[in-house]
Amino acid sequence: MSKSLPLVFTAPRRGMPATHLADLDAAGRQAAVAELGLPAFRADQIARHYYARLESDPLTMTDLPAAARGRVKEALFPELLTAVRHVTTDDGATRKTLWRAGDGTLLESVLMRYPDRATLCISSQAGCGMACPFCATGQGGLQRNLSTAEIVDQVRDAAAAMRDGALPGGPGRLSNIVFMGMGEPLANYKRVVAAVRRITSPAPDGFGISQRNVVVSTVGLAPAIRRLADEGLSVTLAVSLHTPDDELRDTLVPINNRFPVAEVLDAAAYYADRTGRRVSIEYALIRDKNDQGWRADLLGRRLHRALGPRVHVNVIPLNPTPGSEWDAAPRERQDEFVRRVNAQGVPCTVRDTRGDEISAACGQLAAEGA
């Protein structure tokens, strides 16, 4: 089933939105309220409304002076994202949202409620420039990076939806964030790291979600993986490897021509060493492309050698896009692949996938348009 929301048509204006509260750190907020002629304590007060109370409109912040609310709204709360359409499945437990940014750019997020947690999959770019041929987002190319606030506001909206019981099961709490929506997070490095800090810092600086419940995914930008390792964060790194051999990966993940498998795994090992966190390896299993038994054996050997016990493989049944030549591997081949990776001493499981019927693969809803 689907629920359509009224469309908001705005004049196209390409590029990043104006600076929003969520783009600013504590010092930036202090400077912004000073420029508005407000006392310093208003900076944290406004931030608590946004991060703790999940309010995005200063006109509802009744403990602000009435005369200041409009100025705060104009200066610190530009329009970011407007929901174009919500589409639900799994009896309402999975909700995908198509967003329109102020310049008309389309992007997506997916909120998934489980018995023990609520996970939000967020986008870090509109489109993607990595050109992986089996990915709907990659087929559409990169439109632009998202601002820090555009990334963060996806989280605020989902946290409010959970608090308000918008998904079946009554009021709850958003607990997990995965940067696995549209885009390559590490290609928008500074804004993604800033967003991670907003997501994980306690109020008034952020939402207070545990860093250990945040996953940052990458197709393998090795220098950026090393840079992330030195940020002092403890988020989980997920590397979309998809095959252990360079010959095929050059085709499946074209950035492999710059950063081959050995370099990516070396960077992943550095990340594990620096953070003490186990690295997740993402492997979309594609029929007759990367699902052979010998590739499972090679994957297990290479991961065991590079990362030892600090790695886990998530096998992902491919969610094919309409008209695509790429299809999911048969179940029996999937089971054999998992068995053979485990036999190499590397933990390997199949990820629970949701949303095939609502175009929940990254980029599919945006490709269908508003």
TrEMBL record:
Its cofactor is [4Fe-4S] cluster. Belongs to the radical SAM superfamily. RlmN family. The gene is rlmN. GO terms for molecular function: 4 iron, 4 sulfur cluster binding; metal ion binding; rRNA (adenine(2503)-C2-)-methyltransferase activity; rRNA binding; tRNA (adenine(37)-C2)-methyltransferase activity; tRNA binding. It is found in: Cytoplasm. CDD domains: Radical_SAM. It comes from Corynebacterium sphenisci DSM 44792. Residues 114-356 form the Radical SAM core domain. Its EC number is 2.1.1.192. This is Probable dual-specificity RNA methyltransferase RlmN. Signal peptide: none annotated. It is an enzyme of class 2 (transferase). Keywords: 4Fe-4S, Cytoplasm, Disulfide bond, Iron, Iron-sulfur, Metal-binding, Methyltransferase, rRNA processing, S-adenosyl-L-methionine, Transferase, tRNA processing. [4Fe-4S] cluster binds at C128, C132, C135. One of its GO terms (cellular component) is cytoplasm. Binds 1 [4Fe-4S] cluster. The cluster is coordinated with 3 cysteines and an exchangeable S-adenosyl-L-methionine.
